[in-house]
Design brief:
Elements (H helix, E strand, L loop, with lengths): L2 E2 L15 H6 L9 E2 L7 E3 L1 E2 L21 E2 L5 E3 L1 H13 L6 E2 L2 H10 L8 E2 L31 E6 L9 H7 L6 E6 L8 E3 L10 H12 L8 E6 L2 E3 L1 H8 L9 E3 L1 E4 L6 E4 L5 E4 H10 L10 H11 L4 E3 L13 H5 L5 E3 L6 H9 L9
Parallel strand pairs: 3-8, 9-10, 9-12, 10-11, 14-18
Antiparallel strand pairs: 1-2, 3-6, 4-5, 7-15, 12-17, 13-19, 14-17, 15-16
Helix pairs in contact: 5-7, 5-8
GO molecular function, one term: glycosyltransferase activity
Keywords: Glycosyltransferase, Membrane, Signal-anchor, Transferase, Transmembrane, Transmembrane helix
Family: Belongs to the glycosyltransferase 31 family.
Amino acid sequence: HHTQAWLEEVVLVIQSQRNSYHAHQTPFLSYPTLFVLSYCQEWFLGKRLHDNEASIIHHYAFSEDPSSFGYPDPAAGWAISMSLLQRLAERIQYERMKSDFTIDLKHEIAFYIWEGGNGPKLTAVPEFCTQQRDYCATTFTTYLPNCGDAVNKEDIFVAVKTCQKFHSERVPVVKATWDKDAAFLEYYSDVTDPSIPTIHLGVPNTERGHCGKTFAILRRFLSDSVPKADWLLIVDDDTLISLPRLRKLLRCYDPREAVSLGERYGYGLMQSGYSYTTGGGGMVLSRVAVSRLVSSGCSCYSDDAPDDMVLGMCLSSVGVPITHSPLFHQARPDDYSEDLLSMQQPISFHKHWNTDPVAVYTHWLQDTQPRDEL
């Protein structure tokens, strides 16, 4: 039996971000009619998503039957009863999180609430919607808002990190897919190869981390050696990205602000840690953010330190917020819920493992209309 709840009995939590674009969206929110099933029982409600196969971003949880575990679609919103909220608030005070990393918050919240079978699983409620229906309490418009004409190609400088052993394997994929959509693009490697061409920044290649190389890219971006652009995009050589869609998204942000944009992960957030944008999904920085970071003197503790995490730590120290967009993806399409991706116009994916990267690009990222129209 559903009983209507008074608005005073419902706590609405609105997840937003600190850039001016997101702040300006708050007045346009509408408040739906909400229903309460029970004041005393523990309820966890939302639109259910699930994995079709074991996913690296979910630590291969429920690998024997990935679809058996549901987690909420944040675009539809989700709800927990006050009794469950109070118990979770008490639990989190004394129980340390099992991982220092926050990778996919919606899955990790569901896993934490489930508590190995001791807590409730997500109950799928049809009133939580991402498409408009008469019965919906919530609905959703788009992850890629229309803020006006896309920024110009010349407004973005693209830096591709590579190394000699991938010149013949990965770089040709970039050239066959998305590099032609860039006005300014440079490949940075551990050797100079005029056939690509690549640029050697004087930083030795490292098997992991690449922090030294990334900070050299930041300094080069601010120098007179490259064309002056509002935005810097740093990607790996196995990143697949739609630059036309990125140009459309960047129209929503003011390059005169310190902006760091991408897929946001977290480290040690329960212990005064920091957020960072994942390198494989693409890291977007405004010139103001790069300038503030470089001038702060914050730097790598070693050339092979994880560049995306060090960048996040440095940006946090200088007060630059990490802005999350779910359109950037650190992993392959197969690692995400089909229902979730069906609602998106993705901007990026990462990794060539066990996939045909050109086919992934064509299916998920290539727009059929002329690029200049986006």
